[in-house]
Amino acid sequence: MNTFFRRVKDAEFLPMSEVRKIKTILVMAFLLVITIVTIPLSFFLNYSVVLKVLIVSLFVLAYLLMIVMIRLNKLMAATQISILYCLGLTIFYTQGTGSFYAYLFFYISLTVIIFYQELYTYITYGTIVMGLGVYYIIVNQEALTIAGSVPGTMYIYIVTFVLFYFIFLAQIIYNEKLYTDMNYDWVKLNQVIDRYQDDIFFYIDEIRKQNNNELIHEDLDYQKLVSELAVFTSEQIKESGKDILNLFNLYLYLHEKGLEKILANEEISVSMKKTADHLNKYVLNRRSDMISMLINFMTRFRQTEDYTDDRYEYKLHKLSNQADEQIIALTLLYQYLASEVSGTDEWDQMERLLSADDILSLFTGPEADAFMLPSIIAFFKENRELFLNYFHNQDQGKG
């Protein structure tokens, strides 16, 4: 129980499947309480005894089915069954009586659907509940209207219920958009990180070659260490660990041949190919998931450089008083603008490369005076053809 409440507390850090599971369990607990409290009152409803027993039995079976679905990790099915259970409970009470308390079950059903915060589920089941609720108010307006109440009470019930539906529909749409935007930003950030880590791995490999160091998976000390660990692990696990050494040999073979050749080899079994596919994430001779984890781990402990007054300085002549260094900075800036996606599309999203004319307008417009001296701007104008030929016409020149 403590573990469950700890997971509820830390739900923002859990994957969506785990969050859905927690929500379903909480809804089941809520429905169990509602059922236990209200089922005794169901014997006063306008149903025959046989029908009452049959419906209660169906609720029990549906609840057991939810438990089975959660045990089998069929979370979406469990979610749908819990909503249908709540909807069935609402119909059971509202068709058996026309009282105000039965009318409240429509709000309970909508609240359960809102709790899941899933747009399509809310639109589907929420709309059904809203339609049934409005119909119930119209049909049972006399029972819902208290003696001496103001005229138009029925319309107040309807407007309040419909507003309740649409307010939370807007809230769910906003949350859905917020989640989509955050996910889109996360994907873009990961793409940037991947590109930087590719460069980091390339330069690490270049430094290794310059120092004439061998690859880590070819190092005999490394192989001996991992081999001894494999033997020790297999001895500890005994029967279940007998394949550890074979796994280590496959890991080294994966470095030597590569995943593509292993998958293309018809002599290798399907199970071994699946194992190789899993191990491919941990190879050390390319920028794999393992390399990414190592880079992320190392950067956590990298000391941040001390603050300098010119850290956020963007005026070239303030960064350097040498004209040639300012020209180099200008060239690097041009190269970045010509090769990186930094132009906005019709939706104001950065989805395109800047053209030569776009960069010209940036470098010769009034904004350029904020970070470049007139002499550097003049140099760019005089030598624009060189920039065009080198950064925009390389493919034509190679052809």
Task: Summarize, please.
The chain is an all-alpha fold and about 400 residues long.
Description:
- With 399 residues, the protein is mainly alpha-helical.
- The protein folds into 3 domains: 2-176, no CATH class; 216-300, no CATH class; 316-398, no CATH class.
- It has helices spanning 2-9, 16-38, 49-71, 75-96, 100-116, 119-139, 141-144, 153-210, 220-237, 244-257, 259-264, 270-279, 289-300, 316-319, 323-339, 356-364, 374-382, 384-391, 394-398; strands spanning 341-344, 350-353.
- The protein has a two-stranded antiparallel ribbon with strand order 1-2.
- α2 runs parallel beside α4, α4 runs antiparallel to α5 and α5 runs antiparallel to α6 (119-139).
- The longest helix has 58 residues, at 153-210.
Jot down its keywords.
single chain; two-stranded antiparallel ribbon; disordered C terminus
What's the helix and strand layout?
Layout lengths: L1 H8 L6 H23 L10 H23 L3 H22 L3 H17 L2 H21 L1 H4 L8 H58 L9 H18 L6 H14 L1 H6 L5 H10 L9 H12 L15 H4 L3 H17 L1 E4 L5 E4 L2 H9 L9 H9 L1 H8 L2 H5 L1
Antiparallel strand pairs: 1-2
Helix pairs in contact: 2-4, 3-4, 4-5, 4-6, 5-6, 6-8, 10-12
